[in-house]
Amino acid sequence: MKKFYQNKKIVITGASSGIGEYLALELARLGAKVILLARREFKLQALAKKIQEQGFQASYYPLNVSDSPQVIEVCEKILKNEGTIDILINNAGIMKLGPFEKLTLNQHETTIQTNLLGSIYLTHAFLPHFQQNNSGHLVFVSSLVGHVNLQNFNTYSATKFALVGLAEGLKTELRGKNIFVHLLCPPATDTPLLENADSAQVDQFRKLPIAQVGNRLIQGIAKKKYLIFCSWDSQLLVWIKRICPRLAEAILAHY
Ligand code: NDP
């Protein structure tokens, strides 16, 4: 793994917390230079310092992924300052849960702007660079709820389904090129995302440790794997939905 990641430059959105923070620490330990993006500058600064103090490489750029002019400006700066980028991990995301009509239109819009448009903006900024080098890895962090739906997940789930479509489309467009697309689909994972979802519903979920999710992705990228599930039961659920949608619905009704 070290051989694959040594001196790779990796842009990670949503690096200030949860899965993104874990990926940054691990990928830096594997020899990559990690380029950390998120809105909370103090968090990015502290993480970059921690990585550098351990003798590894990191830089950071505060960014709101849902602001397209800001994404263009910051990505141009990254390409100018950092040189060749090898991997883009579209990980930033937010989750607001509740009955569809109880969430405000603003909450629905912000979810789409962050989870879907954010990934589109970043990919649009870096793909020409990958095309020019005929080399790169594009990662999309979708979810198990990008394949199956749960009550109260409505627009959050819609953004994750959309990322599945986007990744699949890009994989088709990039076939035959040395640019790889990866789709990570974790089930509930033990990060602040679920606490911030304002929902007691998620308290009952079994949550995977962050390391299990992060390590699956790290291995998956190195193995050029497209679809990356993080547990056997989430993969099984997606298969059940394909073969017997009614059974999947019955199982999902318990959540
Ligand atoms: P966290 O809440 O721990 O982290 C979310 C990250 O996204 C933070 O670093 C946050 O940084 C960043 N972020 C949010 N909004 C923006 C924005 N507008 N611009 C830039 N950065 C933003 O959540 P997770 O680590 O759990 O989530 C990471 C990804 O994994 C998300 O896409 C999520 O949907 C997905 N996922 C999570 C699961 C879970 O159960 N935890 C399960 C399946 C998928 P800041 O606030 O500083 O901007």
Q: Structural class from helices and strands?
A: alpha/beta
Give a quick account of the main beta sheet: strands, pairing sense, barrel closure. Answer: 7 strands, parallel
- Shape by Cα distribution: globular
- End-to-end gap: 37 Å
The gyration radius over C-alpha positions equals 18 Å
What is the strand tally?
Answer: 7
Number of helices: 10
Strand order of the biggest β-sheet: 3-2-1-4-5-6-7
What's the SSE blueprint?
Elements: H1 2-5, E1 9-13, H2 18-29, E2 33-38, H3 41-53, E3 57-62, H4 68-82, E4 87-90, H5 105-133, E5 136-141, H6 154-173, E6 179-185, H7 192-195, H8 210-222, E7 227-229, H9 232-243, H10 245-252
Parallel strand pairs: 1-2, 1-4, 2-3, 4-5, 5-6, 6-7
Helix pairs in contact: 2-8, 4-5, 5-6, 9-10
The protein binds NADPH dihydro-nicotinamide-adenine-dinucleotide phosphate.
NADPH dihydro-nicotinamide-adenine-dinucleotide phosphate binds at residues 13-20, 38-40, 43, 63-66, 91-95, 114, 141, 143, 186, 188-189, 191-194, 196.
Report on the architecture of this protein.
By secondary structure, the chain is α/β, with parallel strands linked by helices. It is built from 10 helices and 7 strands. The termini are far apart. The protein binds NADPH dihydro-nicotinamide-adenine-dinucleotide phosphate. NADPH dihydro-nicotinamide-adenine-dinucleotide phosphate (NDP) is lined by residues 13-20, 38-40, 43, 63-66, 91-95, 114, 141, 143, 186, 188-189, 191-194, 196.
